[in-house]
Amino acid sequence: MNDQNKNKTSQRPEETPKKAVGAASAVKSSSGWKRLFAKRWVSPAIFMAAAAIIVTLMWIYQGTDPSEKTSLPSNPADVSQEGEPSKTVEGNTDPDPEDIAVGGEMMEWPVANIMALQVDTPFYDTNATAAEKEAALIQVDTTFMPHMGIDLVDPNGQSFDVMAAMSGKVTHVQKHPTNGSIIEISHGNGLVTVYQSLDNVQVELGTEVKQGTVIAKAGRNELEKDLGVHLHFEARLNGENINPSQYIQK
User: Fold this and answer.
1) What is the pLDDT of residues 164-173, one digit of tens each?
2) Looking at the predicted structure, is the pLDDT value of residue 42 above 70?
3) DSSP codes joined into one string, 39-102
4) How many angstroms separate the CA atoms of 195 and 77, rounded?
5) What's the mean pLDDT in 9-19?
6) Per-residue b/e over 21-42, b at no fewer than 16 CB within 10 Å?
């Protein structure tokens, strides 16, 4: 019985060690890649494919309209100073001063004595020199934008009376979180004057005012807090921003 068991044991085939299939495959694959990269045409082909992918991604990125990512208030009064104005009159299309006269009344500076004040930030005029345009740019967050009005300040940092530049009707009064208190006066014939960064507002919606009527005091706003006390004054004709200084009665 023991001899039979011994014979069965001796007849059992010896187990051969299994091959490391994964290792062999890896070696074969590695050798294959080396042979592939050794070919002269492979590296240029890979480079060209990578360049094509990069160019495609750049084209897709540039084709995206960045303005769609910018959220702007729908009300022009909310954006006119340091946000986006409605429109700008381009080139030589500005109307003559007589064209914006209402009832024979010409526009005046919205202050009692313009000579006692100074212009801190001018209107961005597309016909101005490069230096003048640069001086009329304002920074909103990380973006530079054209200034659509005129900022007036007292050299001593004092407040001053803000007056209606022309006779008309108050059509908008608002306390804006960044632009400060705002007043808009409609004068007819599509002409509107806008006053921002105000304090001590003295008119209400619907108030009829005469030219030279004190409507508020110059104040501060959050957006241009470094400027201190100032008045932002602008004019719009048929919804387009125009340079107030070109239409003011000297």
Assistant:
1) 999 999 999 9
2) no
3) STTHHHHHHHHHHHHHHHHHHHHHTS-GGGG----SSGGGTTTTS--S-B--TT-PPPGGGG-B
4) 10
5) 49
6) eeeeeeeeeeeeeeeeeeeeee
